[in-house]
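re: that chain from earlier
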Amino acid sequence: MNFSNSTPLILTLAVPLVVFGCSDDGSGDTDMPTSETTAGDGDGDMSGDGDGDPATGDGDGDMTGDGDGDGDGDGDGDGDGDGDAGVGMVRLAHLGVFPEDMGTEVDIFVNGENAGITFAFKDTTDYVELPAGMYTFDIVPSGGAIEDSVFTVADFPIAEGDMWEVAAQGYVVPEGDDAAFGVAAFPENWADIPAGQNRLNIVHSAALAALTPIDVWAVDDNCEPVMPLLEDFEYGTYAGDVDIPDAPLRIGLDVGQDASVDACFEVPALGGDVLVNAFAVNNDAGEVSIIAHLPDGTNAELLPL
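^ sequence. v structure.
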């Protein structure tokens, strides 16, 4: 479905994401909410020094800086040398809208060092293990240096046991009331997922002005609305900890909020006992889809039926 500018569920309330807006100088530095952290040791450069996979935390190059992937050595980001840090986890999604969806590749820098993660529009990563501490993340055009950073999230707190989804979203070059580029983050909760069910975090990352607010409906096999799931769902908000039976589900997006479905999607069975982040997004042409960030770090794009 293209939008230009001219099974019952029990859902939590849609709540705002932690959003870091872009400043006039393009850095996007924003004060973060405080969080208790646990100190560790080392030089805090987060780059790793070997040949491991920075997206998985295995071996050298795991972004912990200690080369062993266990999160307890040096490189926890605060450089105090006491070695008592626990670890948290972060995974990333690139949903920022570039002109004509071209040149979207970016590198991620952590505490000023290239983390070895390069991804493009609608790409996602696996979990990255980070020792507890405060972090600065930079988005840099692919192949650039830290001086080329176009967006910075400073003083991001990661506590022991944390699991975060961090998503770039919005228009790099907004028009009219389209949402400007920014970074949003929300915590993930894997605890106590009911047996045989899946847990969804439903995120409104579709930055086109025409797509906020919307209503979300459960629909029948003909994509006719049956029951409202989310009403007045605004860009930059999410419904968290939505537990649903592991079975196919059809949902519809009601852009005009007139109890009619403008885009209908089928969410397949996911296997049960997993957490999935589902992002409503649009591309530069205004075409809407849902990006499901899966537990293994990959994603599936759901297109309208």
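Residues 1-12, 23-83 have pLDDT under 50 and may be disordered.
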